[in-house]
Structures are given as structure tokens and as C-alpha cells.
Amino acid sequence: MAKHWQGEADAGPRLFIGIRPTADTQVFLDSLVSHCRQQLGQSAERGVRWTSEANRHLTLAFLGETPLQLVPAIEAGILEIADRARPCQARAVALQPFPRSRSKLLAAELLPNPQLDRLHQLCRELMFRLGLEPEGAAYRPHFTLGRNRRGFSRFEPLVLDRVVELNNIALYESRLAPGGSQYHPLLEAELSGTASDHNTNTP
């Protein structure tokens, strides 16, 4: 069953497609944040803006500023993807600055796999059909945990080995707020594709 939320009426919302972490994954991410705080110490932590639980997500595709009239077609396309793709798993393998050692983000990075790559590719194909241009960078799935303008160069990366469940797909709107961007789900659907469709090559 899909869940719908009403977005802002302004034209050109900033949108992206992502996966909301499950309750178990949220607990795991909470433990990683606790580890980060302990390692950084109080003085280094002062400049960090930690990602709220409501804002945590795994990005599948960034749409950017999108014509308002395309939103219904995007939502319909996401529901099609949810019908075609099954729930899957991914392995968290590293907690580190992202995407490079001197970057301003701290993230739990996931190891790509065929199921997650397929979800990403289906989102790209949806964008192409609607005349939107996907990002050209290689896909590196991750959960952003914090941001720091000064970066995390002193943070010692941590090797992870944790499997997380990915069982939904959502359309998010990014809205500017005093404390940083807030991500509001406009639509969320459970991944419910059949096993036969899951093994079918992407058309």
C-alpha cells in the first residue's frame, strides 16, 4: 500500500528518490552516530550537524528542481518500480568521510549489489522517460550521518560488516529550513515485485 503526502504548492520542488531506513537500520545508524561522537570528542563535535532520524535516507536518484507538472508522472513511475522490484539487502562496509577523505560528509557506505544497482537503474530510466537528466557520477549508495564545514579529516574510518534491509521506495522533497534542508516524503511504497520479475533483466 502506497502512502501519499501533500507537498508544497510552489513550482519547481527539489526532488529525489530514495529508500527510508527500517526501524532496525535506524537503531544501527544511531549506534554509528554514538561511535562518531565518542571518537570526535566534544570539541570536534561542536561543528557537526548530525542528520536527524527523519532525514536519513539512501538516495537512489537525484532529480533536482523539477517542473511541478511532472510530479504525478514521477509518482506513477515510482509505483511501477515498487511493483517490479522486490525487497533486498545491502551490506554496510565503511563509516568514513564521503565521498573522499577530506569531504564534509560523514556516511555509512554500502557495498553495491545487483538488486540495489537495478533499483538505481530503474530510477534513471524513469528520469530519461520524463526528459530529466540523471547524474553522471558512479552510484555509491550510503546513509549520510553528519555534516561539518571543516570536514572530518581527523576521523578514523571504521570498517563495518552489517546487512541492512531495503524494503521501500519514496519520493522526497527537499525544503530549506533554518537548521538545514528538511526531506519530506511525498510518496512512499513498499517494494513488492514478484520473484520472476526480480530476476528479469532491466528493459
TrEMBL record:
One Pfam family named in its UniProt record: 2_5_RNA_ligase2
Stored InterPro entries: Cyclic_Pdiesterase (IPR009097), RNA_CPDase (IPR004175)
Gene3D superfamilies: Cyclic phosphodiesterase
Motif HXTX 2 positions after renumbering to this chain: 142-145
Active site residues per record: H57 (proton donor), H142 (proton acceptor)
Assigned keywords, A-Z: Hydrolase
Enzyme class per UniProt: hydrolase
EC number: 3.1.4.58
Positions of transmembrane segments: none
HXTX 1 (motif): residue ranges: 57-60
Catalytic reaction annotation: a 3'-end 2',3'-cyclophospho-ribonucleotide-RNA + H2O = a 3'-end 2'-phospho-ribonucleotide-RNA + H(+)
Family the UniProt entry places it in: Belongs to the 2H phosphoesterase superfamily. ThpR family.
Purpose of the protein: Hydrolyzes RNA 2',3'-cyclic phosphodiester to an RNA 2'-phosphomonoester.
Protein name: RNA 2',3'-cyclic phosphodiesterase
